[in-house]
Amino acid sequence: MKAFPVVKIIPLLLLLAAWQAASVLGLLPASVLPPFSDVAVSLGAMLRSGELMANTLASFARAGAGFFIAAIVGVAVGLLMARRRAVERAIEPILLLIYPVPKPAMIPLFMVWLGIGDASKVAVIALACLLPIVIATFNGARGVDPMLIWSAQARGTSERRLLWRVVLPAALPQIAAGVRTAIAIAIIVLVSSEFISSEAGLGYLIFSYGGVGADDAMLAVVIYLAALGFLLDRFYLAGLRRLMSWHAFAH
Amino acid sequence: MPASACLEMRSIGMRYGEGAQAVQALSEIDLDIKEHEFVTIVGPSGCGKSTLLYLVGGFLRPSSGSLCLRGRPITGPGSDRGIVFQRYSLFPWLTVRSNIGYGLDEQGVARAERNRIVDEYVRLVHLQGFEDRYPRELSGGMQQRVALAQTLACQPDILLMDEPFGALDAQTRRILQDEVRRIWRQGAKTVLFVTHDVEEAVALGTRIVVMAARPGRIKEVLERGFDVADGEEFETNSAFAALKLHIWRSVKAEVEAAHA
Amino acid sequence: MPLLTRIVPIALVLAAWELVARTGWVNPNVFPPVTEIVMRWFAMFADGRIYAPLWGTLWRALAGLAAAIAVGVPLGLLMGRVRWAEWFFEPLFSFGFPLPKIALIPLYVSWFGVFSLSKVMLIFTDCLFPMVLFSYHGARGISPMYLWSAQSRGTGRVRMLWRVVLPLSLASIYDGVQVSVVVAVLVAVVSEMVSGGGGLGELMIRSYRYGDVRTAFATLVTISLVGFALFKLAQWLRGSLLHWHVAEA
Prior knowledge:
- The structure holds three protein chains of three kinds.
- Chain A has a domain at 48-198: MetI-like (MetI-like fold, Orthogonal Bundle).
- Helix content of chain A is 81%, strand content 0%.
- Chain A contains ten helices and no strands.
- The two termini of chain A are 24 Å apart.
- Chain B is an alpha/beta fold.
- Chain B has two domains: 32-80 and 157-260, P-loop containing nucleotide triphosphate hydrolases (Rossmann fold, 3-Layer(aba) Sandwich); 89-155, no CATH class.
- Helix content of chain B is 36%, strand content 25%.
- Chain C has one domain (32-241): MetI-like (MetI-like fold), CATH 1.10.3720.
- The radius of gyration of chain C is 22 Å and the shape is elongated.
- The model of chain C has no long low-confidence stretch (mean pLDDT 90).
- The chains are: A mainly alpha, B alpha/beta, C mainly alpha.
- Chains in contact: A-C, B-C.
- Chains A and C meet through helix 1, helix 4, helix 5, helix 8 and helix 9 of A and helix 1, helix 4, helix 5, helix 8 and helix 9 of C.
């Protein structure tokens, strides 16, 4: 993993220290914000009891499923759109219709269609992630140097191999950027959907703890979620670098 | 009456980096610029001529040595040293009028007085009728005229120019050279002008400083010795040609030495 | 011309939708025909019940956005030009970015109540990040020679920020505004769906609870149009505001 300048954590630590100091000194009443120490204790307890782990799995199962559906379908559609004008003409109007619609606003509609369970959440997350991935893949695939494609075709490469071995790798940087956006979108749509209706998951935890006034537990989950999002992004970037270097050697 | 020193540079050194990787951009520069002189600095790329100008402007701090303007040490930028760059001199969001009046606005000059002074400088650079245009609507040559007017309006003690006409076509460059010369004569300003164009250096400078690179240093200083009239076709002037050839060979020798 | 080639395929898609819904292939109470949705949409305007929620969402989004611009732009510019500001704030914003600010809804509700203030504060928080980011990048991208020119014309450090750095960063800042305006509408709607208090989001949830799918769709259309209209408005305003701007080659 690329060296993360540890110095960057200092402002964060300062903020936490200020928070704790303000609470201890009575400047910050517990009704407004519980002391950071309480939040930390709560976080520890939830980690130990497995409550966080169970709900993390529930949340990420949904988000992961939606995301992966979007990734596979999105890349496939994007590649096809880039290679076949007819496909582009057919799909583009649908994208244009969906693009301006805020996907979290579609959650109630998905609940009408697929019920209040996991299916509706997975579906709306999939739809939300689909757009950035399709667009990024399409742009990436279109941007491939035609010379690369022509030389491969001159060597008798089939369309399928062409897509897999030439177009996809060349479009990878742009697809990767779209995927990164999609990950962030997935988390937002996930939490929104869990706020609206669910009985398990990190969003559900935040909502229910907040609802009963257990602010220390709620904040513990919020901080946990923030850390998770941050680590996810970091691991994504690191994994991407690994993948790119493998691919460079494979060719 | 001998002209007094306007600018004094003593043992100026400029070093970038540390240890083995250190680059000596300038080394032991000693130069005096007298009042009302038009000094051009010419040399190959990397000789530090622009760096020297930026030191005078106060945007950079020398590693060693001292700079004094009319007896006062230079510690930072200020309106007593006006500078015209090749680009980024004009503020694109301001009209010609507001650009020229910018320095006056900073000084807190009242609007009526400001407008009067701006009109004066608009006339000086022959841009009447363009006061309310934006830089993007002007040609490169006109933009540099505005930049010049903007700088002069602050009435600096010395005018610094960093290859100001480098991005312009040859004809526009000639016209603007004449403009600068004319303005200099009229206002008797002190000018320090950096260029890589030997012809421009001779056409404008009453004194020409030739610099060499690695490390940046003054190779020779030449008095032009003759006048150049506005609009003169100095191709026909043999003294001009001789001086130009001398300097050109001097610079060329440095470029070849660098490549050796 | 491009508009026409865009409209025709969309019209085809809508026509296909209409057909599928009308033939009873899908339950029209779950997936209503386009024409019925459009009629409901017009009806909502005719009987006026769209105006209150529409206005609610709109003013919250704009208020939150305005606050985010007012705080985010100076902060971003400061971070871009002053070392210690960058050192202190940049990690905070980097860490905060991956957190869906929507997760803070319960916290904001406990602080600011269930009505408009908590929503505006949430919109403010969500829009603050892009506004700071774009302002920061705008300020960082300024060529130092502009600043040198300004210095040699007598501009002091403080005046430099709003006399020179701000106009030069304006193009980037405005990109941030265009991004944020869409975020503002989105967050307004989601917070309304979660915590009620009027607005298009609450209308959405209410029509869902009553099983009124046509209204739900019509509300969705309205939400999309609001976001789209604001984005286009911002784009159109850019021309007048930044008429002097020439993109660096």
